[in-house]
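Moderator note: this is an archived Q&A kept for reference. The question asked for a predicted structure of one protein chain; the sequence and the answer are reproduced below.
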Amino acid sequence: MEGKNDNEFKKNQPNESERIDNTIATESSTETTEFRNSEENIQAVDAAFTVKEPDLVNNQESDEKTESEVTKEEVLPTEMDQARTTSKFEKKTSKKRNIKGFASTLVAGVIGSVLTLAVIPHTDYIESFYLNADNQVISSSQQTGKSTVKEVTAQPTAVTTTSSIADTVEKVSKTIVGIINYQQSQNNNFNGQSNSSQSVESGSGSGVIFQKSGEVAYIVTNNHVVEGAAKLEVSLFGGEKATAEVVGTDALTDIAVLKIDAKYITTTADFGDSSVLRPGDPVYAIGNPLGIDLSRTVTQGIVSATNRSIAITSSAGNWDTNVIQTDAAINPGNSGGALINPQGQVIGINSLKISESGVEGLGFAIPSNDLIPIVNELIKSGKIERPYLGVGLADFDRISQTYLQNLPNNTTKGVMLTSIDPNSAAASAGLQVEDFVVSMNGTQIANSSELRKYLYTKVSDGDEIKFGVYREGKLITVNVKLAK
């Protein structure tokens, strides 16, 4: 290959001024094109265009511009041409200075990079950088999660005792049980003789689980629900059945306490204060009307009256029971069930109703404040310890006129003694059959219920009672000291 001398090499290359001019011309042409494009795009905001970076070939081509391209450069506006001339002059005069500045900047950059690479490994900058990056990722993820639209689904109703009686009833219903009373039935042969016996269902009622202690759970119900039972079967909320054992009963107040195995029990009921009840307060009765098939039926009503006195006849005798009157439906099978307030507290045990023709909405419950002492005593001792007088009683309106002939004409109330226990305090004091009692310690006694009420609530074992008694038409006083 023939070598070219320096003059020939320089001859074929554009001189320095031509390169600068061509470069400036290219930049000016580009600016003009962008200016025109921006004017065209004002009316079309969403028009899109792409500006490509010039490659190496284009750079070489731009260094060897044709005369026609030079002609285009000369057509530029006067202001742009002046700017081009000024730029050309500045570049000529500062070329050497720029080269030196560039070299200095390059050297400083290299030195700085070397120092950075040498120092950074000995600091915690990288660890902090990645920690911050992780935090940014977590923060971004959390923000994205907050804005994520979730599928809309039905939510469970909030469990509150103040806004929904359904929630309250659902909770208390788990403490309501069904009680089936099985009694012995005798089977007779053809000769009328008894040859076998079996347990048959005699009746059913309701009960309330009010306490769980260790392996035993306690249930309160009415005495008449369990009276005479050979076997008691309890039906629980979850469908389980358990055999119940009688802890204690009190026929006079119609209260009974049972116990069962606590393994099935998860919830117990709370008693409320019945003394704060007022007529008009809302109440709800929960029980098993007409048997287990309608278990945990809920009826709604109000307190119709408080401190009602209802005369009842039990196996322990006549008694005036203090009750809450309500118009919430109470039917056979509801006996022993709960009467609750809106807070879910048991404020009464449903006990009886008046079921005469034409009578509606007359139900009665034993107040919680009256039954709590009875329940505690039954758990403690299995029975209620009361003063024992040892007499049989008959009310004035049930006595034959034969026994009333010796009484003053103005006597219309009182109790006649029909029997005397020879080992009782009454026998020791000298009370006799057919004595007619009209007062106790100066308090008028109208019937047998009032006599029992005074005996069980006003005096205790060891006290002395002054009985006002008519005997053979004469009013006498008999002092009876109650046994301890």
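Archived answer notes: The chain has four domains: 12-93, 166-264, 274-381, 391-481.
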